[in-house]
């Protein structure tokens, strides 16, 4: 079975090749998959895609014409796939529902600790032989209230870690997780979570219902000086509203691993290029904002698990052992 791996990096090549015993034939392609690049899938049976590939109707139609029968997402999220169209074209979509919830949850915690204790600023100061502490004042996480939006695998792991800091954790999820309830974590309506949390961390999927969940209305309900962390998907946040709230001090800290317009930026080296995205450029000017380029998943353990499940999905489809395939259904 021939698989075209789009948006591939050297680490994808290493991990996928290591997991397959030679039954799959991978072609590693650097470009993102979209309408313009879909033709590169010619001669393959399946495509393997990542978070910033565009699997919209025109792209899927081209893939179907080329005889592609399966899309193996090497990530958990599938908001970039038109599932209805894929189903209509008889293209199976599979994903990696779980690889390492610890990788993403721990990264969210890293953002919180960095923001709170100004590690990013301290790092630069010390390198300049500036050991003054002005402006580096943090706060104890102990006994602070942390709101977790979405308590699936990652949110639940994050909630458990924050309980370990002695935080009071509040949760919101339309489908409460019994494992989280067993930790005596209270599920509350979103309005209460906004109003009572000192730190808010987003761990829900991007769907029409959660698109721009963080907007001027929800921010207005939050505590002044709140810390907001998003390691989920960029479009959960309406960035311009967050910038306004950062300027007024309503949002006191912002930690992002994802950004609504990240597809044109992340995973590439643009250090010799003039940044064209003025909204992103504004975010970079705040001392109380830190941004990482969608790296929360990026641990050895997670990459191993992603490659293993992706190969299992592809082989399951190849041998029509569908019980082994983690299909995405509408
Ligand atoms: P999951 O499916 O296990 O959990 C998602 C949870 O969100 C579920 O409990 C679901 O009930 C809940 N949810 C659904 N609708 C909601 C709503 N309207 N409001 C609040 N919660 C809602 O997924 P997961 O593995 O925990 O991953 C969570 C998200 O993290 C993914 O959707 C993905 O976007 C993101 N992610 C990011 C990275 C990264 O590298 N930054 C890596 C993996 C996943």
Automatic annotation (TrEMBL):
Recorded coiled-coil stretches: none
Keyword terms of this UniProt record: NAD, Oxidoreductase
Residue ranges of domain D-isomer specific 2-hydroxyacid dehydrogenase NAD-binding in the record: 109-296
PROSITE patterns per record: D_2_HYDROXYACID_DH_1, D_2_HYDROXYACID_DH_2
Keyword NAD found: yes
Gene Ontology molecular function, alphabetical: D-lactate dehydrogenase (NAD+) activity
One protein family per Pfam: 2-Hacid_dh
CDD domains: LDH_like_2 (cd12183)
Alphabetized InterPro entries for the sequence: D-isomer_2_OHA_DH_cat_dom, D-isomer_DH_CS, D-isomer_DH_CS1, D-isomer_DH_NAD-bd, D-LDH-like, NAD(P)-bd_dom_sf
PANTHER family named in the record: 2-HYDROXYACID DEHYDROGENASE HOMOLOG 1-RELATED
Family as reported in the entry's similarity comment: Belongs to the D-isomer specific 2-hydroxyacid dehydrogenase family.
Protein name stated in the entry: 2-hydroxyacid dehydrogenase
Organism lineage: Bacteria, Pseudomonadati, Pseudomonadota, Gammaproteobacteria, Oceanospirillales
């Amino acid at each position: 079975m021939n698989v075209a791996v789009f948006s591939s990096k050297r680490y994808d090549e290493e991990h996928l090749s290591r997991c397959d015993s030679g039954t799959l034939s991978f072609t590693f392609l650097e470009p993102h998959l979209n309408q313009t690049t879909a033709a590169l899938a010619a001669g393959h049976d399946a495509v393997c895609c990542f978070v910033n590939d565009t699997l919209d109707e025109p792209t899927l139609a081209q893939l179907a014409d080329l005889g592609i029968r399966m899309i193996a997402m090497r990530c958990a999220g599938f908001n970039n796939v038109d599932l209805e169209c894929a189903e209509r074209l008889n293209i199976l979509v599979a994903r990696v529902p779980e690889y390492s919830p610890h990788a993403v949850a721990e990264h969210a915690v890293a953002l919180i600790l960095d923001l709170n204790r100004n590690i990013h600023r301290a790092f630069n100061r010390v390198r300049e032989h500036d050991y003054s502490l002005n402006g580096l004042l943090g706060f104890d996480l102990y006994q602070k209230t942390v709101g977790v939006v979405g308590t699936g695998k990652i949110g639940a792991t994050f909630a458990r870690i924050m309980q370990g800091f002695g935080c009071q954790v509040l949760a919101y999820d339309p489908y409460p997780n019994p494992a989280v309830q067993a930790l005596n974590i209270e599920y509350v309506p979103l309005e209460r979570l906004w109003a009572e949390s000192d730190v808010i961390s987003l761990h829900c999927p991007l769907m029409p219902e959660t698109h721009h969940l963080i907007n001027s209305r929800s921010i207005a309900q939050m505590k002044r000086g709140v810390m907001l962390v998003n390691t989920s998907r960029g479009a959960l946040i309406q960035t311009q509203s967050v910038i306004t709230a950062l300027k007024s001090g309503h949002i006191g800290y912002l930690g992002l691993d994802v950004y609504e317009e990240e597809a044109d930026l992340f995973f590439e080296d643009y250090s010799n290029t003039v940044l064209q995205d003025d909204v992103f450029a504004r975010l970079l000017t705040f001392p109380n904002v830190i941004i990482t380029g969608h790296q929360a998943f990026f641990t050895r353990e997670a990459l191993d698990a992603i490659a293993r499940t992706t190969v299992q999905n592809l082989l399951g489809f190849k041998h029509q052992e569908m019980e082994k395939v983690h299909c995405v259904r509408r």
